[in-house]
């Protein structure tokens, strides 16, 4: 179910909005630790060294184990960091860092204006942010005659599997990755396709595998 998925950013993105000549540049990216979040914040600051403010916020983790942080970065208390963090907390995303860089345009926005401007800047970057998911997955291996190769590739795609490795020897040896809740159905179809001759063997389980959201939702 969609509500069970741990949503994260798939990649870094940037958007820009303007309010009364002030520029608000929002950068968002995945971050899986506080150190990664701090490194991204430093990277954005170095990219815009002459900006008036660099307002950061991040959420590391999901559910009951989230580390949340924000700062107003010199803006009036409660007008920047907290609004950004509130938007993030309502987005359903985790493992995300955002920095909103402001270039002052000469006109003061007031407390309410700043809250709206920073909130809207984050919403704009979240609108274009590609999503991925963090979920349990199996890495599996199987060996098949060449006559089954293309059909197994199609079957892998049917269950949103990812091909990690292909070894073309006397037979084809494949290393594949599946979301845990997809693997049993793949295995059953593989057995049917090959009349029970070929079975995939689980070699590893990773509780926090990152997969593009579209691939996972295609046939859920």
Description:
The strands form two sheets. Strands 1, 7, 8, 9 and 10 form a five-stranded antiparallel beta sheet that branches. This protein has six helices and ten strands, in the order E-E-E-H-E-E-H-E-H-E-H-E-E-H-E-H. The chain is elongated. The chain has two domains: 2-129, 2-Layer Sandwich (Ribosomal Protein S5, domain 2); 134-217, Alpha-Beta Plaits (2-Layer Sandwich). With 220 residues, it is of the alpha+beta class. A hairpin with a 2-residue loop joins strand 2 and strand 3. It is 34% helix and 37% strand.
Which features would summarize this protein structure in a list?
alpha+beta, elongated, Alpha-Beta Plaits, 10 strands, 6 helices, Ribosomal Protein S5, domain 2, 37% strand, 220 residues, 5-stranded antiparallel β-sheet, single chain
Q: In a few lines, what is going on in this structure?
A:
This protein is α+β, with helices and mostly antiparallel strands. Helices cover 34% and strands 37% of the residues.
User: What is the terminal separation in angstroms?
Assistant: 7 Å
What is the number of helices?
Answer: 6
Largest beta-sheet characterization:
5 strands, antiparallel
Structural class: alpha+beta
Oligomeric state of the chains? Answer: single chain
pLDDT averaged residue by residue: 92
CATH class of the largest domain: Alpha Beta
Low-confidence runs of at least 5 consecutive residues: none
**Helix content percent band:** 25-40%
| CATH homologous superfamily descriptor of the largest domain | Impact, N-terminal domain
CATH architecture of the largest domain: 2-Layer Sandwich
The total tally of domains equals: 2
Could you give the order of the helices and strands? EEEHEEHEHEHEEHEH
- Give Rg in angstroms: 23 Å
Look up the CATH topology of the largest domain: Ribosomal Protein S5, domain 2
Beta-strand fraction estimate: 35-45%
Question: Can you tell me the overall shape?
Answer: elongated
Tally of extended strands?
Answer: 10
